[in-house]
Amino acid sequence: MSRAETTQDAFKKLIQTLHEVSSASGPFPVSLISYVFFPISTILRRNPSSAIPDQILEKILVILGILCDTWWWDMDTQTWEQIFMLCSAILGGIEAKDRGKNRDDETQYAAVQCLWTLVHPRDPSEDSAGPFNSALRFSTKYAAFQSHAQTPTFIPIMGQTVNSLLASAESRHTPLQKVSLQMLQIVVKDYLPDGFVPSVLPGIISCMSKIALGTGLSKGWANGDTVAAALTVMKEAIIRAIGDDICAMEGAVRRVTDLEGLAESESNSPKPTTTSTSPYSTARTPVWLHGTSSQLHIALNSLSPLLSHPTPSALLALVSFSHTILLATTLTVPQSQPLLLSFLLSLSSSDYDTVAEQSRSFLLELLSPSSTSCHTFLPVLLQISKDNLAALPRLLPSHSDSKVEHAAKVVQAVCMLANGLQAIASGVSILLGPNGGIERWGWSLLSTLELDSPTSPISMASTAQLMLENDSEGQQWVSFPLVTLHHLTSQSAQAAVEGMFQSLGKAAGDDCLFAVDWFLGISERSRGSRAVSALWCACRLLEGVAGVSLNSPVTPHVAARRNKLEKFARGLVRSISEFWDEDTVDPVESTTRETTHDADSMLVEHVKGLTTVRTPGGLEQSLSFRTAHTNASEIQPILHTVFRLQALAISSAILQSRFTPLLLNTVYPILHSLVAKATYLSTTALATLQYIAHATSYASPANLLLSNFDYALDAVSRRLSRRWLDADAATVLLILVRLVGQEVVQKAGDVVEECFDRLDEFHGYEVLVDGLVAVLAEVVAVVGQETHKPTEPNPSLFTSPTDPQRFDSFFPWFSGRNNSHATDDEETDFGPVPQKAWGSGAGDEEGETAAGQAADPVAEPPPTPTQLLTKQIISRSLFFLTHGSATIRARILILLSSSVPVLPDSALLQSIHHAWPFILNRLSDPESFVVASAATLIESLAIHVGDFMYRRIWDDIWPRFRTMLNKLDAADATSALARRGPAVVGTESAYTNSHRLYKAILKTMTAAVDGVQPHDPASWEVILAFRRMLHNQAHIELQVCARELYAALGNKNEDAVWLALTATEGKIDKWPFPYEPKWDIEENVGLILGRFCGSTTTGNGES
């Protein structure tokens, strides 16, 4: 082992021993310190510094630090100076002239740690001499070292030490950096003389700024504790170099505390006073102050990125730094007050609660009436609000989300202080009031605050309508869709701008209604982008004034009446309702769009990232033009309507239960938007309806509509007149009926009368007739949920007896066919007959009266009001069976089908009998879906009134179906969509017209066989006609429907079914007529016969 290694091991053991003795016995006695210090000092004197290795020198410095921690109380000034100089020289690398390189980080750390032991303040309880006079000893000792450090001979050493500490503070070695910053803080605060601090201020500010900002670090941000330490050093240097106290004392500024001082400050300029003659001192003069404060402001401005630091410790340090500098440099650095206040304002809305609370408490302290500087900071704060508000038009087009978010949060933070400071509330009220100059900053803001087109698609059906129908009770809360600002991409920046307007409205209160009215006036002039932006601003301000938010459901509560706000809300609702159907266009904006989006011009866009658009050659330019034109001409009116709906929702939150009378004007606009094809608009309408229902204390939107059904029906009626015709009014009425549900039965009479009045008036308008017929169908569907007729047919009429039953009745009759029939005549029940001679006595009259009053068991009960209503709908709808529109013809047929289960036979059969020729004509309609609808009606009639349909099915319907089957067979033979193969039936797709007709005919005939008394000749024709549908190459749906038909036929006449199907397979010898070898029906025949026969057919045709 070498000598150096032996010495290093000895030092390690000594350090360990010192720690053990200190923890066991407490502070070292002076004798022990001297005993240990002597050999250490001998090593340092006998060996040149360059000859001592870093590891050994590190151990020596650690030992000196352990000793000085206790020795400090009894150390003389000379020893303190020598150890200080040694550590400073080692730290700066100047302990020897031949030293060619700096010591390693560990050695430098030991040197700085030893320096920290020499200079840091002590707790008087640490004095080994006991608690008696320990505080006095500490203050005396600490003052002695401070005075010695400020002597002219020691100032150069302090300067060199500060320079070395600044260099080591930039080290990547974290422990060294941390202890260097701690050392700098205590040296600048307590040991540097007042005249010397201005000399080192530029270097300290420059170095600490780089450390705080993490300049040169690969990870981007400096550690939070490091930032806090750097800001603390900077704060101490600024206070000591350019603080109000020291500058006022030396005459650089004049502090005014009374009127006499104010008069003197106006007449005489401050005179600098000389406080030190040291060659190292810098005089604080007004000229020096002007230059230094300007440079300091630049340095402070460079700290702005720290607002985005991810650690709360760094943000808390920035809050403390800003607060302290504002208080300490009110007179000397006035140009930095807006910057430092903006730091506090921005951090008051931080995501960290501790940071936000600390910043807000400091702001309230600075601006409280008890503060001596509140008169200085209050105008600055209001000017910050104006400047940031005026800067938004310049920042928005720059696409700088961070700057926009910062400006918006600053304004928002100022407004949040209005709750505790009336002066700020008054200032914001002036800004948004008649004298606030909204005409200047409002127009510039609207010119850049452009709203983007919503990303939601435009669909043929209203998505919100489907959502509301599935959740009419309003159990699932629907949020208002988010709005996207054109020039902003981050959601946080957009939320900040929105919160800024809400905070302005909340701070200004009712005085903000002037600004809201101004924005609403701009929005009423057009439907362009500027009007949309103005309406959005008005909604956000009104949210703040009312203290509500559309992002959360409103909770009805008892609050103080605000008559001015309620009056404004009522006027706003009426204004929106009056201008709802107007569609004016700003000619200035229209001209601008026409000239800007010319087809031959180039579209210039600000795009972030990569967007790949693949289009056929030559279409790129037209695609850009189409997109721009769509955004300008179509999306902006949609957004305008969206924000008008939001204004209605906010007004309902203001008025709450007092909003109910205004539903007369607002129900229709909301429902009209609910059925819009634009998903963005319909979702907003749904959210508005649900929000208003909550605000007016209704349990659900359906309850609201039911309670105000007359209002909605009146609104629809007014929009279905010749003076005011709205094509969507019928759709609005449809959704209204669908939402109210079964409760609409009470109001259905008015709805039906309204529909038929409009049908008579506008029967030539296909769109209106289609919509009104849909409303009638919905009424019938809702009524049908209340009552249904029994659908079981009468078994005594249609069920054929089985073979054993036939023979059991035949044999008794055959054996007694020649006997007398007197017994049968006596036993025959002819019903009620007179038991005595006819007469006219009183008893007979009483009997007749009693018989007349008795209920007739055969007669049907009188129709209910619901059935009378449905009968009225059917009888008045029959005229539209011959309408020129195929869609309307199909709708009427479906309407008739839905009424069959509802109406009693006495009311239904009369209407069907009257319309029967028209129904038969629909089976020859050129449109296949009309024919299918007619077949559906016949199917429903066969199920519910089979006895009535007996002759009509076999004499009228089946011949037409037979003709249709032949035509379909011929058409499939030449169709390109037909299935390929021998004797194949139908088409490949289940969506062709022929397939749908086949399916409708099969289902109709199945219902007819089940519900109508069979007719043997026609039934045999049916059995033979549909055999091809059992071919295993037919479509699977047709095979299933055919099996159901033959099963129904087999239930009535299984012999005929068995005979026809077995002969078709060729299993009956000597009967070639039904045989069809081209059809493979064996599998389906087995399934059919197995449903009503005990066993399937055998190979020779026997069962």
UniProtKB/TrEMBL annotation:
<keyword id="KW-0472">Membrane</keyword>
<dbReference type="InterPro" id="IPR049362">
    <property type="entry name" value="TTI1_rpt"/>
</dbReference>
<protein>
    <recommendedName>
        <fullName>TEL2-interacting protein 1</fullName>
    </recommendedName>
</protein>
<dbReference type="InterPro" id="IPR057567">
    <property type="entry name" value="TPR_TTI1_C"/>
</dbReference>
<dbReference type="GO" id="GO:0005737">
    <property type="term" value="C:cytoplasm"/>
</dbReference>
<feature type="domain" description="TTI1 N-terminal TPR">
    <location>
        <begin position="147"/>
        <end position="350"/>
    </location>
</feature>
<dbReference type="Pfam" id="PF24173">
    <property type="entry name" value="TPR_TTI1_N"/>
</dbReference>
<feature type="region of interest" description="Disordered">
    <location>
        <begin position="261"/>
        <end position="281"/>
    </location>
</feature>
<dbReference type="InterPro" id="IPR011989">
    <property type="entry name" value="ARM-like"/>
</dbReference>
<feature type="domain" description="TTI1 C-terminal TPR">
    <location>
        <begin position="775"/>
        <end position="1058"/>
    </location>
</feature>
<dbReference type="Pfam" id="PF21547">
    <property type="entry name" value="TTI1"/>
</dbReference>
<feature type="domain" description="TTI1 N-terminal TPR">
    <location>
        <begin position="6"/>
        <end position="121"/>
    </location>
</feature>
<feature type="region of interest" description="Disordered">
    <location>
        <begin position="821"/>
        <end position="865"/>
    </location>
</feature>
<dbReference type="InterPro" id="IPR052587">
    <property type="entry name" value="TELO2-interacting_protein_1"/>
</dbReference>
<feature type="compositionally biased region" description="Low complexity">
    <location>
        <begin position="265"/>
        <end position="281"/>
    </location>
</feature>
<keyword id="KW-0812">Transmembrane</keyword>
<keyword id="KW-1133">Transmembrane helix</keyword>
<dbReference type="InterPro" id="IPR016024">
    <property type="entry name" value="ARM-type_fold"/>
</dbReference>
<feature type="transmembrane region" description="Helical">
    <location>
        <begin position="26"/>
        <end position="44"/>
    </location>
</feature>
<dbReference type="InterPro" id="IPR057566">
    <property type="entry name" value="TPR_TTI1_N"/>
</dbReference>
<dbReference type="Pfam" id="PF24181">
    <property type="entry name" value="TPR_TTI1_C"/>
</dbReference>
